Amino acid sequence: MAKSAAALDIPESSDRSVPEIDPARMTLQHAGQVWSEYLVRVPADFVADDLKEPSIWRKAQAGSRNALRKLDRVTVIAFDESWIAEAVVASADSKGAVLARPRITSIPVRFDKLFEDDQYRVAWNGFGYVVERKADGHAMTQPTANAALAERLLVQMYPARVGR
């Protein structure tokens, strides 16, 4: 038996505001003579279905150096890296952009578990690997390029013995 959306506390599509893409999270991969290629990391509350909405690109299209143009290639990565979408820009103006049939690929969960101890854990925060306090989820370090660096920072958070 299927449960209703209200019973599962899932917001109706009209109740949920579609998040906009921050132009600072758009990276130019390649600028060619005819089209450009961009890599975009979307906010945490973004779902793949939001790519259908042209207004998500409003901030990027309003005077940004990374404004999309027709025929540009866009690779969109979910905040938690659970999916990736590849698309071509069908049309674009100052109010938004329309993507032509984004191809969405699911990315499997991590094979290896990230390091953790009783107080802290290494976690991906969308920008890099950070040491997170388990009690409240607070990021204790700046994002690092890989999990090994974050693991080293976690170990350095504990006092070390000096001398004998």
Sheet with most strands: strand arrangement: 1-2-3-4-5
Distance between the termini: 66 Å
N-to-C series of helices and strands: EEHEEEEEH
General form: elongated
Would you write up a description of this structure?
With 164 residues, the chain is mainly beta. The chain has 2 helices and 7 strands; from the N terminus they run E-E-H-E-E-E-E-E-H. The protein has a 5-stranded mixed sheet. A two-stranded antiparallel sheet has the order 6-7.
Offer a few descriptive terms.
single chain; 5-stranded mixed beta sheet; 9% helix; two-stranded antiparallel ribbon; mainly beta; 2 helices; 164 residues
Please render the helix and strand layout as text.
Elements: E1 26-31, E2 36-41, H1 58-61, E3 73-77, E4 83-93, E5 96-106, E6 120-124, E7 129-133, H2 147-156
Parallel strand pairs: 2-3
Antiparallel strand pairs: 1-2, 3-4, 4-5, 6-7
Brief synopsis:
Helices cover 9% and strands 30% of the residues. It is mainly beta.
